[in-house]
Every structure is written in structure tokens, then in C-alpha cells.
Amino acid sequence: MRKIILALMGLTLLTGTAFAATVEEMENSFNPYKNGFPTVEGIKPGMVIDANNWQVAEDVIDPAFLQYIQAGYYSIRIGESFSFDVNPNFIEQTKARLGKAKLGDKPGQISNADAGRPFVEEPSLDDPRAGEKLAWNFKYGHSQGDEWLIDPWFWKYNDMKSGKKERQLRFNFHFRKFNHRYLTDPTKPAWTPNPSNVFRSTFLTVEKPFDVKNTQVLVQRYEDDTKLDNSYIYLGFQRRVRRLSSGQTTDAFLGSDIMLEDFEGYNGRLSDMTWTYLGTKPMLVPMYKHNEEPTDDEVYTDDPDGYRMTKFIGTGNCFPDVSWQLRTVYVVESKPVDPNHPVGKRLHYMDVQTATIPLTNVYDRAGKLWRSFTIGYTHADFDVKENKGTDVVMYNFFSMVDPQVMHCTTGQFKTVTSSPSTTPNVFTVQHMRAVGR
Predict the structure, then answer these.
(1) Is 145 left (phi over 0), alpha (psi -120 to 50) or beta?
(2) What is the pTM of this model?
(3) Relative to the CA of 61, which of 72, 85, 324, 431 has its CA 20 to 30 Å away?
């Protein structure tokens, strides 16, 4: 009998959740700091971690940034830890479906997970699919809301050796969830009609400089994670739309240090990776109140509401001038299924409360640190005025640093959730042709 029970437990771990999730587990998932934030002796808000005192924070700084700090490229300002309260609608959706989500037999398969956070149980190292469950929590997360507009979005390409800014691009990005919606009535959790069962679409346009102006990219991601994305590109000088092959999502995007697959920490299909949970730990992460941080008063000064972009400092101006706070993260490793993939593995540091990924380290196939990707998350009440009161965690900068060639690409942007301009027709090939003329 004991062998039968153990076998059944193992089967359950492989195919889904071992036991039905409880309301208490859900509350802990969304409010992990109800008994206080993690603390580390010697680390206090207001202090700066730099090349002279990095030892005090060695255990709570991710490996890439520890190297940067030791080398004198950057120093981290410590801010107060505070809660990023999760939107009540998202919590209610989770509660209504508590314990129902179940993984399929193969990666990329899931059932009974149409809204809310699929898995609220604390991950276990004994669960071989714990990393995959956390990946689903990330994919189906509440970051940014149901649809959002990033306009403007400035990309800078910087040489860290010379400190020279090589190039600057200006974009606008539209994002829209067609499924897993939680903010907008009456379209929760699914927008209809949606005959192709698209999960989420992304549409971007390059506005400047002239040589790449009106380059457009459209990515349609399906609810079925095992189904290949539909991706299209419009090049202004060719004046036509063509499909992007799946392999091009791992090419350098417009000559930058970024792949399309890198966006948001990971922007690919979950089925293209194997996911491994490596543990839970306290860590310093760039999560802050944007309106209380230093801003760049040069890149964007004509905003009607006086909004300013995140400032970049340090070697090559590759690092964000924001405060970092002590929070709890899950460490998750993803490895490509395709042996020809240019990435050897990624280490993702996922915030426990928001299921966002503010820090990702990318390793090449030889196992050497290739790039470090940082995304800054601001509390919505201290950001763009339209975001106030939404309880939606927002991002407003990224930095991709390549220490092998001493180069970086940075992004500064203004993000508005529930933007009325992100209508369904924007995410069509017909729209690309129309605006490209």
C-alpha cells in the first residue's frame, strides 16, 4: 500500500498540483510580507552598496551585478521595502479557480487556468515541475494590466569602454491581452470575438531615426503554448509585410543587445524551455516609486504632464539610477530545448508577490555570463497619473548589459495601462499595411 501511495504522489507531482490549494496559500502568495520583509544585517535603506563595501550584500546581489559593483561599474542605492498590492479583481479570479489549474503531460500544456494565478502553492525542490508552474504564473501574471501603451520608448546603444552613445531609437509599443484579462468589464477574462484564440499580441513601430523609421513588428501569441507565434515585420523601405521565422526571435533586434525573446525577462513559448526551480531567497531588486527617483531631464522633456524618464548612470550610462529594495524571489532556470539555440541557459529572479522577473542573467552555451537583463518595476501610484489606483505593477526601464564585449542597450519609457488606443484592430496585418503607406 505504501508503494502505491508514493507512486500516486509522484504521478500527481508530474502532472499537476499535489494537493488542492488553500485560501491561506493564496493569501501568502499575494501577500508574502504580512509578517515583515526580509532583512540582512548591515543593510539599511539610504545606504549605498559599492566597490568598497559589497561584502555586506554579497549574498543578496545577483551574480552579474556583484561583478559590476566589484569592478566599480555601478553602485546600488538601498530603498525602503514596500508592498506591491495585487489588483483585487486578479485575486478574486484566482480564488474562484483555486487549485483547479493542472499541468499537461508535456511542457507548454495546462488546463483549467483561464484567469488569475494558476499556482499559489509555495514551490518545492521535490517537485520536478515547480519551475514550470512558476513560469505559468509569470506568463499569466497581472503586470501592466489588460492592454497597455508604451509611448515614447527610447532605446540607446552604448559603448561601455568609451562611454559613447552610439545610437538612439524611438518606438511606440502596443500590447493587448485577449485572454486572461482582469481589469476591463465586460471583457473579463476573455475578449470576444477571438476566433484564433490568441492569448496576447504585441505591435511596435519605430519612429526615429530615419533609416529605420516605420519599421513595424507584430507578434500574435496563441493561448495554445505549443503553437508557434504568428510574427510579421514591415520594413518602410520595402513597403511590404513579411513573416518572421521563429528563428529570428533570437536574432539581435535592430542591431541592439536585445532579442525579441528577451522582452520582459522571457518572451517566448514556455514549451521551448525546460524550467527548473532552484530555490527561494532574499534579494535586492530594482522595485521603487518612480516619481521619487532621479530622472533624465534631457531625453524627453515635452510630456504634457511633466513625466520624466528613468536616469541611467555608471559605466557607459548602462545602469539605472533607482533604488533597490530587499524582497523575496524565486530562482528559476530555463534551458532551451533546441540544442542550436544561442542561449545556454537563463537564470530568472522572480519576485514572489508580483510574479514579475526584474532580473535575468543570460549565459552562453559555454556556460559563461553573456548578458544581464534588468527591468525596473514601479508602484503604479507613483508613476503616470493614469496608472494611479490600478494596483497594477508597471515597468518603465530596461537595461541589457553584455560584459563580454562591454556594450549595453538601455530602454526608457512611459507606460499607460488600459490605454484606449490599444484597440483590437491595431494587432492585425491590415493595420500594418494601412499605417505603413
Answers:
(1) left
(2) 0.93
(3) 85
Name the CATH superfamily for 147-436: Lipoprotein localisation LolA/LolB/LppX (2.50.20.10)
Q: Report the alpha-carbon distance of residue 387 to residue 416 in Å, rounded.
A: 6
CA-CA distance, 373 to 342, in Å (whole number)? 16
Contact predicate 346/371, CB 8 Å? no
Q: Is 394 helix (H, G, I), strand (E, B) or coil?
A: strand
Strands 369-378, 287-288: parallel, antiparallel or unpaired by DSSP? Answer: parallel
Within its chain, how far is the Cα of 80 from the centroid? Answer: 22
Cα dihedral sign, 269-270-274-275: positive
| Grid cell of 395 as nine digits | 515597468
Calpha distance 19→126 (Å, rounded): 14
Per-residue pLDDT of the chain (437 residues; tens, 9 = 90+): 343 333 333 434 444 444 578 999 999 999 999 999 999 999 999 999 999 999 999 999 999 999 999 999 999 999 999 999 999 999 999 999 999 999 999 999 999 999 999 999 999 999 999 999 999 999 999 999 999 999 999 999 999 999 999 999 999 999 999 999 999 877 889 999 999 999 999 999 999 999 999 999 999 999 999 999 999 999 877 778 999 876 667 788 888 999 889 999 999 999 999 999 999 999 999 999 999 999 999 999 999 999 999 999 999 999 999 999 999 999 999 999 999 999 999 999 999 999 999 999 999 999 999 999 999 999 999 999 999 999 999 999 999 999 999 999 999 999 999 999 999 999 999 999 888 76
